[in-house]
Amino acid sequence: xxxxxxxxxxxxxxxxxxxxxxxxxxxxxxxxxxxxxxxxxxxxxxxxxxxxxxxxxxxxxxxxxxxxxxxxxxxxxxxxxxxxxxxxxxxxxxxxxxxxxxxxxxxxxxxxxxxxxxxxxxxxxxxxxxxxx
Length: 133
What we know:
This protein is mainly α. The protein is built from five helices and no strands. The chain is extended, with a radius of gyration of 23 Å.
């Protein structure tokens, strides 16, 4: 049977949490207000939009503190992710920078053709998925 986690055996926050605690409390209060807001006359999915927006803002705040401003430590960042102050999958998406530069339609078509042909050539040479073990 797994051990039961309680607040008594939770680790205290690392150094630097006091600096951002006020902002995180503001986000928490906004979240409570959004969850308790009246939803009469709204569609079912529209009720959740403010909740997603606040969650997104809180995650973006922590992302910018760690990656752009470098204002918090790695230990504090990991602690915040572990304690669900930010969405780790959303931050992972922001870390990826795979967007293509803007291209004309002709250049984009040529690029896609190049990618298609290079993948077709690698599979013809025995690329991934063609080997039998």
